[in-house]
Amino acid sequence: MQEIALKGFGEVLKTVTFRVRRYDPEKRELAKYMEYKVPVQMGMTVLDGILYIKEHLDHSVSARYSCRMGICGSCGMIINGKEQLACQTQILELNKDLIKVDPMGNYPIVKDLVPDLSKLFRNHGSVKPYIIREEEEPKSEFIQTPEQREEYAMFTDCILCGMCLSACPTNATDELYLGPQSLAQGYRYITDNRDMGFNERLNVLDSKHGVWRCHFSGACSEVCPKGVDPALGVQLLRQLLTSNSFVKYKQKEATKGPERKSVSGVS
Amino acid sequence: MRESRIMFLQYMTGLLILVFGSMHFLAISALAPTSDKILYLYNSSSGAHTLIGGTLNYYSVKAVYTSLAWGSVFELLLTFLVFHVFNGFRVILSEQFPGGTSEKIITYSMLIVALIIFIYGSNTIVVMLNGGGI
Amino acid sequence: MTIENKKGWISWFNPFRYGTDRWMYSLHRLTGIILGFYLIAHVWETSHILDGPITWNSLMVFLDYPFGPHFGPFILSGVLLVAVYHALNGIRLTIVENGLMLPKPYRPEFPYRPKSLKGLNNVLKILLGVLMIIISAIGIYFIFTGVIL
Ligand code: SF4
Ligand code: FES
Question: How far is C93 from chain B (nearest CA, A)?
């Protein structure tokens, strides 16, 4: 069994052409494509291919990556026309002889395949992605049942890769739009029963470039590598805001557990 | 106005346009005040194209316009349509040219164009309701 | 120095690989713009009723025969198709964008197919297609023959 599984492992199965979009910030040249021939072994990902180019063919090709296992969300790029994590995309599964690699759209490019994600993090910060409470120092735990956790659990899987903003057709023209990622995170914190910050987030979410600029093209959910389904979060958030303008949204107050004497000093 | 209110109106006017818009189709088809419900009826024998009947003939259309019921249907439809269309244009344009000043310009110019279309269309409807035209 | 890399509005019409919802979004926009301009033209056109029977009738004949025999009905059928699509997709969006007929939050599982674009949303899309064929068939039949089924 082992031998069958490993058959062909380590051999060069075929050679594919990588067409990589280059941008050199020092020469201020406009981006152009360059082609590289890469021998492919079984199990090689697109990121491995780019690293092969960097090692053997052209040292100046730049890409951002870190974990190589789809957790850090650094390596999003447009592979054959669709946003994908380079470290999660098998070259052999693409089944093409030409692999076109572009940097993510709708972000400024720093160099080659490296986008400047500061817009994503700024938008993420603007929806206050943390639990907001009135009391300064909680005296006891907040009780949350597993069912209450299920209401938002799927949106916590986001790895901030930013590919949804690259796929979004609104972001393609409107750089002030918050983007599916931030809106889904806003929904995640609003539905958390420990959170009390609905009104604080309302101004950002219900603004001119907030949730209403989504027109449900579903591209964000289509490309999300973690199945977060940000489009679902945006639509549910919108339902919440619509009903809020008729019946004020009531924040779910988490029941508190037994009071603790002192929180500090607990190991 | 908050964006959520505006977009709520956008959805509601959309649904109302559906109701009133289909009624407005009936005015030139099933409910038209002519015996045959064809759009154009030509006098083919005279060679030249002369409209002698059909639901789009002047007298048929005028009969529709001068009834108060149809007039109010058209006026309401126009109101909803103008809001829906120009709010839609505002959304598309402000997504195209985001930013404080450009959005102000877009909003106000859309408002002005919408008012012009609304007044121009209402003028037709109101004048026709009063016996209309020549 | 970074360089701008906005995809721009042209990317609305590059929806390979993003699925049907993206196509429907692009079409909804396009049909909306067309209908907006049609409204302006229509308001201008109907205002000619004030000019009396001769002007009105000759305008109607011109609109029936603009560039050749019976070209008018083809334009009218086009407008009908556009309007029917925009209306039906508008109903779908009103339902779906307000969070109705969408799944409850679920646990994503490999291979991560988004459920919000499937399920009842898909049923609505199929219904849209069927209704669109029926309504536009009736409408176009009426435009050309004056007979309502
Ligand atoms: S929602 Fe998905 S696509 Fe968007 S940043 Fe998070 S993980 Fe990436
Ligand atoms: S390198 Fe971490 S997600 Fe690809």
Answer: 9
